[in-house]
Design a protein that fits this description.
With about 220 residues, the protein is of the alpha/beta class. Strands 2-1-3-4-5 form a 5-stranded mixed sheet, with helices on both faces. Helix 5 packs across helix 8. The chain starts with a strand and ends in a 6-residue tail after the last helix.
Amino acid sequence: MKAIIYCRVSTEKASQETSLLRQEEELRELAARLDFEVVEVIKEQASGYELDRDGIFRMLELVRNKQATALLVQDETRLGRGNAKIALFHVILKEGVRIYSLSHSGEIELSDSDSMVLNIISIVEEYQRKLHNLKIKRGMLRAVENGYKPQKNLANRGNIGGRERKEVPVAEIVRLRENGLTFEEVAATLRGFGYKISKATVHRRYLEYQNGQEDV
């Protein structure tokens, strides 16, 4: 298993350099016992209550790029404290990465309170996804009710033999706006039909059309 070693101390005193070295040495020994391959060692001096840390962003980059499936820390407070710790636990565990610590001599066991908070976060995220999908559905239904015909306007989407659709369908943006949809609803509706487009892009392209800079 590929692993990242993360070491942190909270101050910039010269004496803390020794602590960082000790953490690295002990975590390398833990990795060897667990037969893990260490892909990178991250060391930094920063407050555990802060999320804006170079080391944390580097660690998350490695995790999201699937370059490691394990994270080794001295103890959970080295990763973070307070809300920062919970937020990092959530992001890391969501990526399928397992966290190991010296204090546990293996994989970290979350406290009941931490587990409860993470479960609540997961439930909230699930409802956020449901609300987002419902918003797209409502936008699509509203567009159809106002005369939008996706089977006609998007007939060539994915049709190799047909005319290539524009990456940003300005004509559809204009039509949906004229049917009374907000920029956010237009973006959500077009995403539902397979277009990767943001509210900001919809707004910008609509303004370009109004200014005569964009042809439909």
